[in-house]
């Protein structure tokens, strides 16, 4: 038995689910999901465990007794210390944030806690993951209409998703916000890519952000070449990801949300631009977590300068 902890927003949930499916396929073990974090008040800022409402996923929920048996849960100040320094032998915590194929070699019953933000964990079963992560929820009339327009104009218009993440990132000292320079590089790269293809088509930028006012003031896009997507809010925020996945070129932020918006795009000739540096976090001597975030961008995506 293996239990994979699920925590965070939609992008994080997708990584943890994809890892859990890869773990089951690679090991042949029965894998359960621990979704108990979504019953806790501190995680109500997210929209709960969204996956089963959006995708035809296959999963089983871990029982409380098995979670307790295999893991050390931070439910009190003392247990937080115990989880960090005296974790049960059966509780695996990913502290390095790097691809570690040895995790597939763990034998017996384990509770696995981590972000698993590296496509190499599920590369070998990516076709299955894409099938299970096909949206089944209604993306809404306005989004469907926009996607249909792009399909009808596919020889004259190339939709480009552009994601700007600011709100929560501005509050985290380890999460830098993608610079204006990065977006200038990416916008020009998208235009150049379309010119190189020899198409008469022009780019049309779909801008997604938690700070659209900043985008309008700083991205230097002409009104005729951009639309600022401001109608997918609250519980319908996932529809931004669906609309991203309908585009052909992607300019992502250092965000798991737009990472998945690009990954779920099934166009074989898609182009994805990502920042060359994902985070300010670097391994610190004696630190418990030694995150680098260096491997989150797939090799076939293009990293662009941030200055």
Task: Please provide a brief summary of the model.
The chain has about 300 residues and is of the alpha/beta class. About 30% of the residues lie in helices and about 15% in strands.
Descriptive terms for the model:
307 residues, alpha/beta, Rossmann fold, 2 domains, six-stranded parallel beta sheet, four-stranded parallel beta sheet, 10 helices, 10 strands, 15% strand
Main β-sheet, in a few words?
Answer: 6 strands, parallel
Side by side, the strands of the main sheet go 7-6-5-8-9-10
> Fraction of residues in helices?
25-40%
The average pLDDT score comes to 91
Broad shape: globular
Number of domains: 2
Give a topology summary.
Layout: E1 2-5, H1 10-27, E2 31-34, H2 51-54, H3 64-70, H4 77-85, E3 91-93, E4 110-113, H5 126-132, H6 141-152, E5 157-164, H7 180-196, E6 202-209, H8 212-218, E7 226-228, H9 238-245, E8 249-251, H10 256-263, E9 271-275, E10 302-304
Parallel strand pairs: 1-2, 1-4, 3-4, 5-6, 5-8, 6-7, 8-9, 9-10
Helix pairs in contact: 1-10, 9-10
Describe the structure.
This protein has 307 residues and is an alpha/beta fold. The protein folds into two domains: 2-132; 141-277 and 297-304, Rossmann fold (3-Layer(aba) Sandwich), CATH 3.40.50. The chain is built from ten helices and ten strands. The termini are far apart.
């Amino acid at each position: 038995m293996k239990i994979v902890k699920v925590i965070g927003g939609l992008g994080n949930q997708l990584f943890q689910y994809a890892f859990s499916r890869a773990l089951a396929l690679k090991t042949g073990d029965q894998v359960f999901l621990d979704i108990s974090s979504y019953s806790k008040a501190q995680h109500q800022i997210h929209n709960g465990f969204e996956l089963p409402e959006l995708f035809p996923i296959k999963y089983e929920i871990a029982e409380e007794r098995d979670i307790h048996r295999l893991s050390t849960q931070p439910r009190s100040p003392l247990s937080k210390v115990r989880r960090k320094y005296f974790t049960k032998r059966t509780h695996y915590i990913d502290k390095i944030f790097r691809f570690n194929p040895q995790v597939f070699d763990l034998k017996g019953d384990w509770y696995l806690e981590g972000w698993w933000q590296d496509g190499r964990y599920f590369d070998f079963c990516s076709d299955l993951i894409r099938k299970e992560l096909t949206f089944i929820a209604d993306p809404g009339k306005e989004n469907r209409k926009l996607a249909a327009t792009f399909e009808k104009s596919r020889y004259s218009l190339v939709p480009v998703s552009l994601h700007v993440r600011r709100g929560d990132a501005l509050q985290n000292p380890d999460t830098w916000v993608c610079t204006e320079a990065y977006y200038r590089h990416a916008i020009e790269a998208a235009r150049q890519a379309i010119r190189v293809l020899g198409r008469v088509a022009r780019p049309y930028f779909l801008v997604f952000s938690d700070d659209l006012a900043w985008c309008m003031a700083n991205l230097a896009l002409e009104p005729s070449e951009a639309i600022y997507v401001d109608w997918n809010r609250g519980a319908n925020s996932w529809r931004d990801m669906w609309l991203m996945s309908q585009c052909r070129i992607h300019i992502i932020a250092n965000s798991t949300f737009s990472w998945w918006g690009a990954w779920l795009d099934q166009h074989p000739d898609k182009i994805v631009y990502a920042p060359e540096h994902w985070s300010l976090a670097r391994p610190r001597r004696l630190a418990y977590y030694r995150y680098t975030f260096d491997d989150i961008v797939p090799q076939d995506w293009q990293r662009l300068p941030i200055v």
